[in-house]
Amino acid sequence: MHLLPKFDYYEPRDIGEACKLLSQLKGSARIIAGGTDLLVNMKKGLLAPRSLVGIGKIPGISEIEPVNGGISIGAHLIIQKLVEFDLIRKKLSVLSRAASVLGSPLVRNRATIGGNIVNARPAADLPPPLIAMGARVRLKSRRQEREVPLDRFFRGPGETVIKPGEILTHIVIDALPPFTGGDYIKLMHRRSLEIAIVAVASRITLDGPDGVIRDGRIILSSVAPKAIRAVRAEKALIGERPSEGLFEHAGQIAATECTPIDDIRGGAGYRCSMVGVLTKRTLSGALREAKGQ
Ligand SMILES: Cc1cc2nc3c(=O)[nH]c(=O)nc-3n(C[C@H](O)[C@H](O)[C@H](O)COP(=O)(O)OP(=O)(O)OC[C@H]3O[C@@H](n4cnc5c(N)ncnc54)[C@H](O)[C@@H]3O)c2cc1C
Question: What is the pTM of this model?
Answer without folding.
Answer: 0.96
